[in-house]
Amino acid sequence: MFNAIFGATTVPVLEQVTNFDEARQNLLAGNIANFDTPDYRARDMDVGKFKQDLARAIERKYEPGGSTDVQYPLKTPSNAAGDVWPSDIPILYHDYNNVGMEFQVTEMTKNHQEFNTAISIMKHQMNLLQTSISERV
Fold first, then answer.
1. Quick one: which H or E segment has residue 86?
2. Domain residue limits, the chain
3. How far apart are CA 125 and CA 9, in angstroms?
4. How far is CA 90 from CA 52, 86, 97, 98, in A?
5. What DSSP string runs through 2-62?
6. pTM, to two decimals
7. How far apart are the first and last CA of the chain?
8. What is the pLDDT of residues 25-52, one digit of tens each?
């Protein structure tokens, strides 16, 4: 019953977005933590690929006989290691480190805003469900 209720909302999609954003935020924080580590290469997750894969999962949901479960291959943030790729930031410092602090902070800010937006929408969906349930005769 709960799967049918939540499957009719955007909650499963928002769950995948928040999981991805959480994993990416941890990765970007690691880049900042290694800002002055010699030979450290910044790492990131492919945001474009995530959005394409999630869009395909949503399309499959609405196909005849399609699954109501929207799952991006990233099930939990701990599985994020397979989606990590070396960042191709063109900056290279004398110690062969390519972490640009301004770039990392900008990416963290954008990622954080996306996370907050997803949480706000999810909260609104939960409020709508709660209202629907509580006003039931």
1. strand 84-86
2. 2-134
3. 7
4. 25, 12, 11, 7
5. HHHHHHTSSHHHHHHHHHHHHHHHHHHHHHHHTTT-TT---EEE-HHHHHHHHHHHHHHHT
6. 0.77
7. 18
8. 999 999 899 888 888 888 888 888 888 8
| Per-residue tokens: 20 | 């991805």
Query: What are 53's two structure tokens?
Result: 């894969």
- Are 27 and 99 within 8 A, CB to CB? no
pLDDT tens by residue, 54-100 = 888 888 877 776 565 556 554 444 444 445 656 655 655 666 677 78
Which amino acid is located at 120 in the chain? Answer: S
Q: Is 83 helix (H, G, I), strand (E, B) or coil?
A: helix
In the block, tokens 């005849």 appear at 64
Query: DSSP 3-state assignment of 85?
Result: strand
Q: What are the backbone dihedrals phi and psi of residue 43, each rounded to the nearest 5 degrees, phi first?
A: -125, 155
The number of residues in the chain equals: 137
Q: How many CB atoms lie within 10 A of CB 9?
A: 16
Rounded Cα–Cα distance for residues 27 and 4 (Å)? 34
- The whole-angstrom separation of Cα 75 and Cα 22 is 12
Task: Give the pLDDT confidence score for residue 76 in this predicted structure.
Answer: 43
